[in-house]
Amino acid sequence: GPPRTPNHPKTIHKPPTREREAAEDEEAEKILASYPPDRLRGKAECLSRIREALDAGTEFEDLFQAVKAYATESAGFTRSKVCFSDNWFRSGRWRAYVENITKGREETKAKEAEMLGGLANWVTDRHPLCRHITPGQIDALLAAELVTQAQIQAAGLTT
Is the pTM of this model over 0.90? Predict the structure, then answer.
């Protein structure tokens, strides 16, 4: 057997290897680090809840922005009016923020599509305001196939 027992004071213990686990939770650590530091509580539980949310299909960037939005929203609140990190992730309060972020992204896409439609009408009608269309917008119109290269040139625009 070994010369000394594991509890002997001169026994040198090898540190545990947790490289894989640490690499796996870098995303969760980053999300938790964006939570206000004075409200952090139950780090292990928070990390596991974040990992569950990410594994369930929540996008990293959405959850990260949700935590930042909550931190900004509750910045001036007293400690009795805020939610600590373990309760915030356990109760799923982040879901409302993620839904708002997703809804905002969809509204932005709809507005961009509407704007491109208007620009396409300008190009096809050869409206005088065509000269204000930027090269980036011309590229977006061509990429969305709302107008052709011939229509762009006929309106007096170049790429």
Answer: no
